[in-house]
Amino acid sequence: MGTPITKAVIPAAGLGTRFLPATKAMPKEMLPVVDKPAIQYVVEEAVAAGLSDILMVTGRNKNALENHFDRMTELEAMLERKGDQTRLAKVRESNELADIHYVRQGDPRGLGHAVLRARMHVGNEPFAVLLGDDIIDARDPLLTRMLAEQVKRGASIVALLEVDPAQIHMYGAAAVEATDDPDVVRITGLVEKPSAEDAPSNLAIIGRYVLCPEVFDILEHTKPGKGNEIQLTDALQEMAVNPESTGGVYGLIFRGRRYDTGDRLDYIKAIVQLAVERDDLGADLKPWLHEFVATLD
Length: 297
Prior knowledge:
globular, about 300 residues, about 35% helix, transferase, Spore Coat Polysaccharide Biosynthesis Protein SpsA, Chain A, alpha/beta, nine-stranded mixed beta sheet, single chain
């Protein structure tokens, strides 16, 4: 049996170049998805899975992240004077979510390097990694299932998604073997952003991981790979082929709702999809969408 997990790591040091000029002065993780920044959805997911000790790996110009999850006493006092308890509760929600810590990555040397920066905080215990570009619908609790699989198998667990083979070059791809659970596979190999011809499958790694601490020793000697960056995928590949010393790597195939906020078009789709599900917005937004789409014909 694995060790119960209490810590989550959220890498948030990326420059967000796909969203320039919006991200010139604002972290991409703070871009609003309806009325909350994308990063808050990710923190809420971690907390809902029982992980309230969170480390964000940040970089320069990311102070807005810390400010968002801190108190803003002047704003709170103003809302209290006005008797606006609804907005006051929303403002306080973010700074009461979890025990959040911060460490800087320094030079952006890839996801593997960002995860390695968490070593001192995590220590010698399993931990979760959540990437801010992926929002998982709260009705489809992926992380909770991954944590349970880690405890059951004592292995590292990655989230997998079946994608169109033409899109596999955008992801890390997994070579897999079946297990007794149709949603769980044993990973035998990983390739970072392969061509469709070279991909071992159409199972793509998405931004949720539950990792054994052995990953840190491997990342320490992982050489820069694709893009001259230290790739987490390369470290996981080494763990997958050495299960005796690392516990191996398993994949949980996710079949639920996921919203990608790392791409401009998918970001817009995510806002619309989440907004139409809202009780306070959906009733008015849905008919407007029908009317708007009709004007495009």
